[in-house]
Amino acid sequence: MTADVDVLLVGGGIMSATLAALVSELEPSWSIEIHERRDGLAQESSNAWNNAGTGHAALCELNYTPERADGSIDITKAVTINEQFEISRELWNHLSTHDRLPGGTGFLSTTPHMTFVRGEENVDYLRRRFETLRKHPLFSDLEFSTDPEQIALWAPLLVTDRDPAQPIAATRAAAGTDVDFGALASSMVTDSVERGARLHLESEVTKLKQRRDGTWRVTVRDRRWNGHRRARTLTARFVFIGAGGGALRLLQRSGIPEAKGFGGFPISGQFLRTTNPEIVAQHQAKVYGKADIGAPPMSVPHLDTRVVDGETALLFGPYAGWSMKFLKHGSWTDLLRSIRPGNIVPMLAVGAKNTGLVKYLVGEVTAGDTARLRTLRAFMPTAHPRDWELITAGQRVQVIKKAKGGGVLEFGTELVTSADGTMSGLLGASPGASTAVATMLDLLERCFPERSDAWQPRLRQMMPSLGGGTWDESFELDQLVDETVGTER
């Protein structure tokens, strides 16, 4: 097969950046092009203020440790996500120690991960979760307490002025992280460009059609003010669609059978943010709570330390909303234009089954400043509205797919790959960015099975745990984590 480019990446976020880093390492002779419709990299879901930057490792997120009917705690998903995040950190460590992160290592900061709950029933659940998790080596350092004085030492804002009669509990993982995925993605793309990849900003992929020889004919529109909206075509041997909320419609346009039946349910969100130094200095943690009944997993409330461009702030939310846009800077017609004969039934079925979610979103959309402050004060009793500003988070498109009974709404990610392995796209949201490396490794295995064996030795050198080995985490933290922000700030 002849083509203008070997690998064409749609979208300039963390997924495309990760795939570019891997491919440029494994196949340095392959040509790579990255096309991003915005005028800068990582401006949608990967942008630091459009996500929580948790570095999802299942240390604090309760939706990864559901309670079984018999009262036991299922930690299967938590273990998987933790392992996947460790793989991400191994790759970042490899890139850092081989001078392949031009933007430096300030994207990663040590920030303890905590879970905080109120009420006897929730305290009992958190204790059982802790006792189950700590038996696994990955969670052996997890701490638990119901003592307000101890919790105040970890995160004083959670306890100050709280009713002492209210039962509370918290767990803490001191080695948690805060990740600026926007800065990381930009750094990885810069490195790939220095190694020969070509980056095209304000370049929108509008059409994809597979040719008889298996390559893809791709139409790209120039969105620059002086580009006169000109379109050009090129051929690609492999196409990855990592365009966040824009991925669904591009997969549909490609015509691959594997994309049929998928739909999308857009959910927007907002955060409260403070940069007041007196408040910020009192909270050095990411603290997750328990979601309200009917709330989607992405709406689990959390009070987070965020480090962006070297500056520390606190973020609380998210407050869920709803919009027909599939991208924060998308179109109000995105949802309507995604409807196809093959996904109408799954989408209708999901709407009928999730009336509680719809009711919850309506309540969130109509909530005013008083309601938002009330939610914040459940975490931080001393919160005052003068210290907090409301910011708009990124847009998330949850996956709808065919299932028994018509359709099901998924809150994870879905890798959609053509049968011949020449195209793949990623749908969904959390824990996406944190597990980007594991997802892209899965893509490589699915789409390039004939090269998988040859790549394994190099991949295991970069990420030792892939081969069952271990890595020196203390060394990684010393070398990779931003030393200006640590657990003893």
TrEMBL record:
In the UniProt record, the gene name given for this protein reads mqo
One Pfam family from the record: Mqo
Task: Report the sequence similarity comment from the record.
Answer: Belongs to the MQO family.
Q: What protein name applies here? A: Probable malate:quinone oxidoreductase
Describe which pathway this protein belongs to, using the record's wording.
Carbohydrate metabolism; tricarboxylic acid cycle; oxaloacetate from (S)-malate (quinone route): step 1/1
GO terms of biological process kind = tricarboxylic acid cycle
Q: Which GO terms describe its molecular function?
A: (S)-2-hydroxyglutarate dehydrogenase activity; L-malate dehydrogenase (quinone) activity
Q: Identify the enzyme class.
A: oxidoreductase
Top-level taxon of the source organism: Bacteria
Which EC number(s) are documented for this chain? 1.1.5.4
Cofactor(s) it depends on? FAD
Under catalytic activity, the entry for this protein gives:
(S)-malate + a quinone = a quinol + oxaloacetate
